Amino acid sequence: MIKLFAPWLAVLAVACSPGGDGNTTAEKRQPQAPSKPVATVASALPDAFVGRWGIGPNDCDPKRDDTKGLMVVEPTLLRFYEMRAKVGEVVVETPDHVVAHLSWSGEGMTWETKTPLTLDPNGKALVRLDHETGREIQYDRCPDPSSETKK
Q1: CATH assignment of 40-145, given 2.60.120, 2.40.128, 2.60.40, 3.10.450?
Q2: Mean pLDDT on 8-26
Q3: Which site among 26, 34, 119, 137 is 20 to 30 Å from 20 CA-CA?
């Protein structure tokens, strides 16, 4: 008698299992989406962002005093021609992309923003979102001034 029921028991076991091919009410397992990298929080910008960055080639010339497109990035400060931004919390989403909480001051005003900063893969360009205009501004890494004087 067991021989008669054994094939049916095997069919029922497969049909009722979550991965079985039978017609059941059990939910099939859904494939999980790949996990995103976990963002970390820091109190300073990563070293890869630090340096002198210019919108145009003249902005990188240390002999000029009209470098209005120069952005000097330090771990806890961004310096511009007429503005400064103190770096607060930094959310490091990837090694090339951060969102920095910045406390700005300049021309007699103060304000705060959460500003995305993105490096290109080779580290030679940096993009900053300008909250005033809503535009992304691309800066190119300036050559090291000490290497220019050694030539």
Answers
A1: 2.40.128
A2: 48
A3: 34
